Amino acid sequence: MHRESAGEEVHRDKNTKNILVVLGGGRPNGNTKQLADAFAKGAADAGHNVEIVSLDKVEVKGCLGCNACRYGKPCVQKDGFNELIPAIKSADLIVFASPLLFWTISSKLKAFIERFYCIAEEEENPPYGRYEKYPVKDAALLMTSADDFFWTYEQAVSYYKFAIINYIGFNDKGMLLAGGCGDTNGKPQIDKTNHLAEAYQFGKNIYAGQ
């Protein structure tokens, strides 16, 4: 399984958070990977425990909708998601990182989110439109794109807010939508923007003052 840590181990205290960055595709050292690395370095420099998981290296299939996992039973699919469950459950913050593909998050990241269904618990009194409860986590969104129009991230942000924040129930810690990162046919050019510095500060200050 391909998992990496951002920075060396440092002294942990009660303010230290476990942060899981899930990289939903993109080129090995492309815009999204560089953005995620900058965020992770900032968070690690702030003393947090950061782990990056690349879905290019860990196979996670989409939900089958078979309901075999209801409730407390493992998913019937034998793939990398099952090995990620401990990291998901121990994380205080899950950062969803993706290139913009067909105006939304990548299919790999969408599959990862779908599989949260198998870690849900029974909800005795479900709120309107929700039928199970999930572990309470913080969430953040990192995305990159070539385009940088006012509507570029509309669908991706809508999915993030609706599915992850409103439905699953995670607490939104913010988004960094890095548009204008170069032509899709060329080399990554995020280093020519301010986005990497913004991502570093985002990671470093995400729990500042808490």
Essential attributes:
single chain, 210 residues, alpha/beta, Rossmann fold, 5 helices, 8 strands
What does this protein structure show overall?
- It is a single chain.
- The protein is α/β, with parallel strands linked by helices and 210 residues long.
- The chain has one domain (3-205): Flavodoxin domain (Rossmann fold, 3-Layer(aba) Sandwich).
- Helix content is 28%, strand content 20%.
- Strand 2, helix 1 (31-45) and strand 3 (49-54) form a beta-alpha-beta unit.
- Helix 1 runs parallel beside helix 5 (195-205).
Could you write a compact summary of the structure shown?
With 210 residues, this protein is of the alpha/beta class. It has helices spanning 31-45, 81-90, 107-114, 154-167, 195-205, and strands spanning 3-5, 18-23, 49-54, 93-99, 121-122, 132-133, 138-144, 171-178. It is 28% helix and 20% strand.
Largest sheet: 6 strands, mixed
Number of domains: 1
**Level-1 CATH class name:** Alpha Beta
Question: Strand share of the residues?
Answer: 15-25%
The CATH H-level superfamily is: Flavodoxin domain
What is the CATH-assigned architecture?
Answer: 3-Layer(aba) Sandwich
Tell me the distance between the termini: 33 Å
- Model regions low in confidence, pLDDT < 50 over at least 5 residues: 8-12
Number of helices: 5
> What string, H for helix and E for strand, traces the elements in order?
EEHEHEHEEEHEH
Please give the radius of gyration in angstroms. 17 Å
Could you name the CATH topology?
Answer: Rossmann fold
Class computed from helices, strands and strand pairing: alpha/beta
